[in-house]
Amino acid sequence: MTDYYELLGVKKGATKAEIKKAYKKLAMKYHPDRAPEEKKKEYEEKFKEINSAAAVLGDEKKRAQYDQFGSAAFEGGAGGSGFQGYDFSDIMSQFGGGGFGDVFDSLFGGGGRRSTRASRGSDLLYETDITLEDVSSGKEHTIPLNKMESCVTCSGKGAKNFEECHHCHGTGTVKKTQRTPFGLFQQTGACPYCHGKGQLPQDSCSDCSGEGLVRKKKEIDVKIPAGVHHGMRLRVPGEGEVGRNGGPSGDLYVQISVRRHNVFVREDDDLHLTVPISFSQAVLGDSVEVPTINGTAELKIPAGTDSETILRMKGKGLPRLQRSGTGDQMVKVHIEVPKKLSKKQKELVKQLKEEKPIVSFLKKLFG
């Protein structure tokens, strides 16, 4: 059997003021909004218990019944009314699901919040794909949007003409009586007729049908920076949906997809590709023209280069995002063995075969 006095930490003869003080102290301590993540369930159960205790001891008739029959009278026991008291979910739903201060404002007669608080608009997501060349140089991209914005005709108010709300006399608030564990308390809440605005519309805006919002098509230019990576999201502040009741607009997020390139493979800021070279170029060395992301460039092949050797072309990669400098281009050379040889070419290869120093190289090269 639960001892409500012990639960609240007061004596059996405690006054209503002492019970209220003890309750408030414990409620502040065990309110679920203040609970560590690992103790959230524990705090919720404790909060329910102290609310049930306060609901009984704060009411003279229920307290007298409790003193006679104990907590069983309020927990569905013999002779009990089955009254469960307040619990956390009841209080939070009753007072708008608000934070800690809202619960106490309502329980102890404090002022209520307006129900028409300014709210931030929703964020928008736009997906676009770009080429590796766009990554190298950056790109100015035009994005088409179809989103809600404030109605220009009525300035987002929903009507052109307003009159003072006669229910709240222009204050936007009305007083409400709230029953709590400590009796009846008055609280101030948003006027349900004007929704806390203090004014009632005399007409409805024909362009937005009184909503204050209209859907509009627009285009905005977004700068995609050089060096951007696949999967990145760029944030464009204030280009999301418009906020409600004067709240700020949401943001637009542009998600980047980089198309697969038919020549280059990207690794961070470096570019990789494979180019074919001839046997003679590998043996004697040469300078060859290779593609780069911005055109072509000369690549020097040292004499005696093995097949599958990777040669670095410094600074021929991609720009580093939000940093100075550029990545490199890594070129893998692949020696191509000719499938058909002329009679003269065959004779030259036979001559090479007879040269002892070249034999080990050929074996290494061609297995």
Helix content: 25-40%
Give the N-terminus to C-terminus distance in angstroms.
90 Å
Shape: elongated
Under CATH, the homologous superfamily of the domain at 4-107 reads: DnaJ domain
Unreliable sequence segments: 76-115
Summarize the SSE layout with pairings.
Elements: H1 4-8, H2 16-30, H3 40-57, H4 60-69, H5 88-94, H6 100-107, E1 124-130, H7 132-137, E2 139-150, E3 162-164, E4 173-180, E5 183-190, E6 199-201, E7 213-224, E8 233-236, E9 252-258, E10 265-267, E11 270-277, H8 279-284, E12 286-292, E13 295-301, E14 310-313, E15 329-335, H9 343-354, H10 356-366
Parallel strand pairs: 1-9, 11-15
Antiparallel strand pairs: 2-7, 3-6, 4-5, 8-9, 10-11, 12-13, 14-15
Helix pairs in contact: 2-3
Structure summarized in a few sentences:
The protein is of the alpha+beta class.
Please tell me about this protein's structure.
This protein is elongated. The protein is built from ten helices and 15 strands. The model is unreliable at about 75-115 (pLDDT under 50). The strands form six sheets. It has a four-stranded mixed β-sheet. Strands 1-9-8 form a three-stranded mixed β-sheet. The termini are far apart. The relative contact order is 0.10. α2 (about 15-30) runs antiparallel to α3 (about 40-55). Among the domains are: about 5-105, Orthogonal Bundle (Helix Hairpins); about 265-335, HSP40/DNAj peptide-binding domain (Sandwich); about 340-365. It has about 375 residues and is α+β, with helices and mostly antiparallel strands.
